[in-house]
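U., I forgot to send this yesterday:
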Amino acid sequence: MNRVKAALALLVSPLAAAASEEFSVNPDAGNSGFAAVFDDALGEMNVAVSSSVGCDLAYDRTRGSVSGHCAVPLGTVRVDNNAIKSKHFREWVTNNQSDPTSCKFEAVFKDVKVEPLVPDEIVPFSAEVLITVCGRGREDGGKEKLTGTARLFPPNIYRERRTIRIRAVISTFHRDLYHIDPKYTEGWRAKLESLADAVAEKGAIEFCLFAEATDSSSGAVAVTRRNESESGRAQLIERDEAPALRSRASR
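Result:
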């Protein structure tokens, strides 16, 4: 009997250890991205982008949930690939009260429910995410609604380790709730800018992230593939989610 218990312990312990898996998004890899899209008064797009997105994620297969933290340094964000617009944007975000190099856009999420991640299957999800900008949250204390899809790549398909590709969008982001506006910014130029309705107060934020397993020993998860109809629905959801940047750029 003791030998049976010992054998069971050896079998169960690695499974328990593997139930939770950690992933990270490398901000220096250049394969992940952040884009914020806002129209101006004439209907032209103003696009703020950065490829320096860093994340630490924990995927709990037992609970079917993901928790983690992502950050984008303000200094890496460019607006319309224009130095002057990028400078003004940094002033709006910091309100000219802090150093732009120390400011970050940050997102924190906990226990986001995700269906089993099957290799090469597209899995939809939704979440409420706590966003802070230079440490400031929404003035009403609320969270942002985010929808997206996740796709698991087995080892040696995209990277040497298991990788999750995440596509997600916050379809309505109200920048005024975070005081990203010239009316909150010190300086005479900001006061002049506040007189013109230059940029819409509401826009969309899109993310494309590639999160790689931090443990090199992580193998593929043994799960049952869903039937073709379920897979087709998931792919249809991804197509219908129409990421903000892609849909607006096609106008």
